[in-house]
């Protein structure tokens, strides 16, 4: 199982014709060991999505390197990356007319030749993935008719069918009710593949992540175990909120209680 190494990445939207934009990823370094579940947290607009995009060969860094093991991902083809890295994005793909089965089957594409049909193994992997996200019975439903939470689980199933060695998730729990938030994160955690996920809900990040990176204004400003990172001072400085931090009474990881009245 490979590990992901982002080293001193610099990236800005300037290359995309936005000359007046101030935002830049600056000197961002991040590591995901094999099997590790790493969370990326930070305020809106801090650069989480931009940094994740550097890890799946979408944003090409201006300097620095993104490596899967010793392979610089920009020296590999996009197919090479798609065979190894699966991505669950914030936005849903346009899947006009496609059924759940068809969307999930797309996860097999990087492993197939241009004109290859689905093999038995492809179909089995898709079926297993659909079951594992709790969508058995939805196979023939049109993707476009599903709720946000169901769509999110279909996209995760597609990622699972891809059999990736690294999973990248951009705010994967946003569309989900509490039960499916927990189920999705538990499921991902059980996979034991390297995972890099941006997570808005800091209590969920504390509960599931082995380590966290905090990004603010395009810079990594803290990293470590949730217990080391999620301090009242950090939440005040980075997120501008006041909170009490103690321990989850059953599991021991940090618990954040927002101070909501002044
Ligand atoms: N391709 C792009 N073109 C213009 N601006 C961009 C682009 N990508 C990101 N940005 C800007 O960069 C900043 C960081 O965005 P993003 O990485 O999406 O933050 P986050 O995911 O933490 O909310 C934002 O101000 C966003 O508008
Ligand atoms: Mg984002």
Task: Please explain how this structure is put together.
- This protein is an alpha/beta fold and 262 residues long.
- It has a single domain (4-229), classed as Rossmann fold (3-Layer(aba) Sandwich), CATH 3.40.50.
- It is built from nine helices and twelve strands.
- It has helices at 48-55, 78-82, 100-105, 120-132, 148-161, 178-191, 202-208, 226-229, 232-239; strands at residues 4-11, 25-32, 37-41, 63-68, 71-72, 85-88, 166-170, 194-198, 211-216, 219-224, 243-247, 254-258.
- Strands 6-7-8-3-9-10 form a six-stranded mixed sheet, sandwiched between helices. The chain has a four-stranded antiparallel sheet with strand order 2-1-4-5. The protein has a two-stranded antiparallel ribbon with strand order 11-12.
- The chain is globular.
- The relative contact order is 0.16.
- Bound molecules: adenosine-5'-diphosphate and magnesium ion (MG).
- Residues 13, 16, 18, 21, 23, 42, 44-50 line the site of adenosine-5'-diphosphate.
Note the overall shape: globular
Number of domains: 1
End-to-end distance: 48 Å
The CATH class label is: Alpha Beta
**pLDDT < 50 runs, ≥5 residues:** none
Largest sheet: 6 strands, mixed
Secondary-structure class: alpha/beta
Care to count the β-strands?
Answer: 12
CATH-defined fold name: Rossmann fold
- Which strands sit side by side, in order, in the main sheet? 6-7-8-3-9-10
CATH homology group:
P-loop containing nucleotide triphosphate hydrolases
CA radius of gyration is 19 Å
Structure ligands: adenosine-5'-diphosphate, magnesium ion
**DSSP helix fraction:** 25-40%
């Amino acid at each position: 199982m490979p590990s992901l190494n982002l080293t001193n990445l610099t990236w800005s939207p300037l290359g995309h014709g936005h000359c007046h934009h101030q935002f830049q990823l600056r000197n961002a370094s991040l590591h995901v060991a094999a099997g590790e579940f790493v969370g990326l947290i930070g305020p809106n607009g801090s650069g989480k999505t931009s940094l994740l995009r550097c890890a799946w060969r979408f944003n090409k860094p201006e300097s620095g390197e993104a490596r899967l093991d010793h392979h610089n991902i920009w020296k590999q083809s996009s197919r090479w990356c798609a065979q190894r890295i699966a991505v669950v994005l914030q936005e849903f793909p346009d899947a006009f007319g496609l059924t759940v089965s068809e969307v999930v089957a797309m996860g097999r594409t990087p492993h197939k030749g241009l004109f290859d049909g689905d093999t038995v193994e492809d179909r089995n992997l898709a079926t297993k993935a659909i079951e594992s996200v709790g969508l058995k019975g939805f196979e023939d439903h049109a993707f476009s008719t599903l709720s946000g939470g169901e769509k999110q689980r279909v996209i995760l199933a597609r990622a699972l069918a891809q059999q990736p060695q690294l999973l990248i998730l951009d705010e994967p729990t946003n569309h989900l009710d509490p039960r499916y938030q927990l189920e999705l994160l538990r499921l991902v955690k059980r996979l034991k593949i390297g995972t890099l996920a941006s997570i808005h809900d800091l209590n969920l990040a504390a509960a599931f992540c082995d380590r966290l990176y905090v990004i603010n204004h395009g810079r990594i400003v803290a990293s470590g175990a949730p217990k080391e990172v999620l301090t009242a001072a950090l939440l005040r400085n980075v997120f501008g909120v006041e909170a009490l931090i103690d321990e989850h009474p059953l599991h021991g990881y940090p618990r954040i209680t927002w101070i909501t009245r002044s």
